[in-house]
Write a structure and sequence with these properties.
The complex is a heterodimer. Chain A has one domain (58-264): MetI-like (MetI-like fold, Orthogonal Bundle). In chain A, 77% of the residues lie in helices and 0% in strands. Chain A has helices at 2-11, 16-38, 56-62, 65-97, 103-113, 115-118, 121-134, 141-164, 169-177, 182-211, 214-219, 227-237, 241-264. Chain A is globular. The longest helix of chain B is centred in the first third of the chain and has 34 residues, at 6-39. Classes of the chains: A mainly alpha, B mainly alpha. At the A-B interface, helix 1, helix 2, helix 4, helix 5 and helix 6 of A face helix 1, helix 3, helix 4, helix 5 and helix 7 of B. Chain B: It comes from Haloarcula taiwanensis.
């Protein structure tokens, strides 16, 4: 192993890749650390370096009714999107991987589900906003949730499909030989085997929804506010200590979901 | 499951129904709505004529340019990163490395872009360090221009590109590099003739995922970009917010969508990419 690694180092691409990885990690984590550091400043407009440590801005954020309302809205929409989006993703994955539909039908379904990936989000969001007004749905919670479901569907579908494709057919065949009907096979064989992927999908969909900005921006109207909308509105007014503390709290929520998910399955 | 039967197929269509209905109702129907609005009640093309006036042509080209440029930077950076994780990283740490590099995927891009304001501002981290250590006499203007916007974009989309390319890179057999070296190939030849063709599907998939979203981004240029350089999303949002001229905004969206798909198509048309994608 060691000799192979050194040989690789000589013959592969030299030191460059390792250096790029180190730089990338610095690049990726510096902003998060900087915001965390600045959020501890007692001043409303922190300067670098900060003058003392205080948690007063965290208290300010957690007692700010507007922010709390946005946070509860984001969490609620996130939970609904995560659960329903994963159920729809499971249906989509089954259809793409296991169903008896023709190859063309399955491919077409996969492309339609993947639409939000390669159509610019602003076009999709604007289109959904106009379509929603056209059919009389207007703006508010329901259009936002539908928009989020549409946005997470490709991620949940392909995440579950990747695992579905690896399942051993013989297990369900054996269950059928022992007299199980389709529903029993699905409940006792397929779902338990897919469980890690399903849980990862729920968490990933939650994080996607919790952080989604543009679709929400077009569909929220004036009555609904989510955390990303709230933060975006404040960013345009200026960078402040309040915003730093709010940002850290948002990062913590997403990072917890990511941490739990990464223990469940490989991200690829 | 191997033998197809009519009831089974019917059930599969029923299962397909719910996700498909959602994707059609929120993907295809809105696009049709936009198309109908863009040609307006009189089936006219004046909306499109306006979109193609020099004023908006600039914004369209700038958006596409940003999309192409940032995607290229992300790919260039993702190659060494994925190569290192797949072929150099000790097995034990591979998952940790991959998770660390892709963690920002989970975080909020509005927040992440905002964090860069504190780093790049005149009194921000970078300038404090440069001026504080005496490397510079006065602060650099790093914020609200193309530099800060590019950094913000790469910051958000690099994890997506790394994650997508990693799969290709993991399948890549590094012994091919050794063979090429033994046959006397230079570094550049090894990359172009050995590494690139075999990892092209991953690069293509990554491009497909990030390019359209960069070109049509709204938050990043608003938070980190220059007020003078207008990207398409801002124009669409303005039209939408002012409740006027939906027809024009719809036409703009449509021309932009066609441009994005067109540029993606150009990439897919090059024979080499086609050949590689067929293996997928």
């Amino acid at each position: 192993m060691v000799s192979r690694v050194t040989r690789l180092a000589e013959r592969g691409a030299g030191r460059l890749p390792g250096i790029v990885v180190a730089l990338a990690l610095v690049f990726l984590y510096t902003p998060v650390l900087v915001i965390g550091y600045l959020s501890l400043s007692p001043a409303g407009q922190p300067t670098i370096p900060i003058d003392g440590f205080s948690l007063r801005w965290y208290t300010a954020v957690l007692t700010d009714t507007r922010f709390i309302r946005a946070l509860l809205t984001s969490l609620g929409i996130g939970v609904v999107t995560a659960v329903v989006g994963t159920a729809l993703g499971l249906a989509g994955a089954y259809v793409i991987v296991r169903s008896q539909l023709s190859q063309i039908a399955r491919r077409t379904i996969a492309v339609i589900i993947a639409l939000p990936l390669f159509v610019p989000t602003v076009v999709v969001a604007f289109g959904i906003g106009r379509a929603s007004a056209l059919v009389g749905l207007g703006y508010g919670y329901l259009p936002v949730v539908l928009g989020h479901l549409f946005w997470v569907l490709p991620f949940t579908t392909f995440l579950i499909a990747a695992r579905y494709a690896e399942l051993d057919d013989r297990l369900s065949a054996a269950a059928r030989d022992l007299g199980a009907d389709d529903r029993t096979v699905f409940r006792t064989i397929t779902v338990p085997l897919l469980w890690p992927a399903l849980t990862a999908s729920v968490l990933f969909a939650f994080a996607l929804s919790f952080n989604e900005f543009l679709i929400t921006f077009f569909l929220a109207g004036s009555s609904v506010t989510t955390v990303p909308l709230e933060i975006f509105g404040k960013v345009r007014i200026g960078a402040t200590a309040f915003l730093n503390a709010a940002s850290v709290l948002v990062i913590v929520v997403s990072a917890v979901a990511a941490g739990v998910a990464s223990t469940l399955r490989r991200p690829v | 499951m191997s033998v197809a039967n009519a009831p089974g197929r019917l059930r599969d269509w029923l299962v397909a129904g719910s996700p498909l209905l959602l994707a059609l109702a929120l993907g295809v129907f809105p696009l049709l709505t936009l198309f109908v609005e863009s040609i307006g009640p009189g089936l006219g093309s004046e909306n499109y004529a306006e979109v193609l006036s020099p004023l908006y042509r600039g914004a369209l080209l700038y958006s596409i340019g940003v999309g192409v440029g940032v995607t290229a930077i992300c790919l260039a950076v993702a190659y060494p990163i994925t190569y290192w994780i797949a072929h150099r990283c000790p097995d034990r740490y591979r998952l940790v490395a991959l998770v660390s590099v892709t963690l920002p995927l989970w975080l909020n891009y509005v927040v992440l872009n905002y964090a860069w304001v504190w780093i790049l501002a005149r009194g921000g981290v970078v300038n404090r360090i440069l001026v504080g250590t005496g490397l510079l006499d006065s602060s650099l203007d790093l914020l609200y221009n193309n530099i800060s916007m590019t950094i913000g974009f790469v910051y958000i989309y690099l994890p997506y590109v790394v994650l997508t390319m990693y799969v290709s890179m993991e399948r890549f057999d590094y012994q091919l590099i050794e063979a090429a070296r033994d046959l006397g190939a230079s570094d550049i030849r090894v990359f172009l003739d050995v590494v690139l063709p075999r990892t092209l599907p991953g690069a293509a998939a990554a491009t497909l995922i990030v390019y359209a979203r960069i070109a049509g981004a709204f938050a990043t240029p608003e938070i980190l970009g220059s007020p003078g350089n207008v990207m398409i999303a801002r124009l669409v949002v303005q039209a939408f917010r002012q409740y006027t001229n939906y027809g024009f905004a719809a036409a703009l969206s449509f021309v932009f969508l066609l441009l994005v798909l067109g540029t993606l198509g150009l990439g897919a048309l090059s024979p080499r990419v086609r050949q590689e994608l067929r293996q997928w």
